[in-house]
Amino acid sequence: MSTNEQKALWATGAAGWVANEAIYDSVYAPVTAAVLGAADLRPQTTILDVGCGTGTLVQAASHAGSSATGIDISPAMVEAAKNRVPQAEIVLGDAQDENLNALPGAPFQRVISRFGVMFFPDPVAAFSNLRLATSTGGRLVFACWRGLSENTIFTAGLERLTERVAQPAAPVSPGAPGPVAFADPDLLRGILDDSGWQQISIEALDFVCDFGALNGTDGVEERLAVVLGGPRARHARAELEPVLGPAGWNDLVEQIRQDLRAARDPGTGTLRVPAAVWLVQAVNR
Ligand SMILES: C[S@@+](CC[C@H](N)C(=O)[O-])C[C@H]1O[C@@H](n2cnc3c(N)ncnc32)[C@H](O)[C@@H]1O
């Protein structure tokens, strides 16, 4: 997928992410904690958050006293992040090609990301670009998804939609730019190595996406909101709603709701989806 296609995807895809920011932040809280813990932020540390989205890490870094800059390719994400963390520098740009050394705070002592670095058409160019904007001894710390078989989060609740659409949205595929681009740790290590990063560490982190945690509910409505706001459900809706009509579409949504209810954890009564990521660290020597 080219840079322009990624830009187009995130220009529209940002809406669901922005609307459901609080759900994502609650569900991904263990990942946020792992990235921030590994980054070991101190007052005055200069950080760059890559693919910063609505500014979760930028906000946390800023609260820790760090000098935080975020970069994102999506105007809607950048606007949301600016509103959320007005004291930080949030830049609209492509982290693969932008002159990152021109950004406020460069060269950065930490380059960090939560799920924002898997979308580059040329990952070696991108991670080289990030390294060139990192101070000597500065560190890269990010989280990215492992494989599809370990992450039903990419399919849970979507089954009824994907089985009905004639032309499904492009599948997420390991190795290609997209959420599971770095499912293969050897491929990822090679990319970082070729980009000049050293002391590369790729560590498995398993966690549970707890959709009930945010509101103290069973999590079904929260998961449904994320599913319907995502690119594949929006793609399916564009095809199915004109055929089914609004009532037919609502019936289908109700069936998905029932599927999610049936998938609740029998012990807790809440929707909990196991998930698997890599916590990645490297140093610029
Ligand atoms: C899965 S979202 C994660 C957002 C945020 N880091 C979070 O965890 O909430 C991926 C983000 O990466 C951004 N992105 C994708 N390609 C990018 C690029 N080449 N340069 C900068 N940002 C990019 C998208 O616009 C999107 O905001």
Give the SSE layout.
Layout: H1 3-19, H2 21-27, H3 29-39, E1 46-50, H4 56-63, E2 67-72, H5 75-84, E3 89-92, E4 108-114, H6 123-132, E5 134-145, H7 159-162, H8 185-194, E6 198-210, H9 220-229, H10 231-262, E7 272-283
Parallel strand pairs: 1-2, 1-4, 2-3, 4-5
Antiparallel strand pairs: 5-7, 6-7
Helix pairs in contact: 1-5, 1-9, 9-10
S-adenosylmethionine is lined by residues 6, 10, 24, 51-54, 56, 71-74, 77, 94-96, 114-116, 119-120.
Helix content: 40-55%
- Major sheet: order of its strands? 3-2-1-4-5-7-6
CATH level-1 class of the domain at 3-151 and 177-211 and 270-283: Alpha Beta
- The CATH architecture of the domain at 3-151 and 177-211 and 270-283 comes to 3-Layer(aba) Sandwich
Q: What kind of sheet is the major sheet?
A: 7 strands, mixed
Rg, Å, rounded: 19 Å
> What is the third-level CATH name, the topology of the domain at 3-151 and 177-211 and 270-283?
Rossmann fold
Overall outline: globular
Ends apart, CA distance between termini: 31 Å
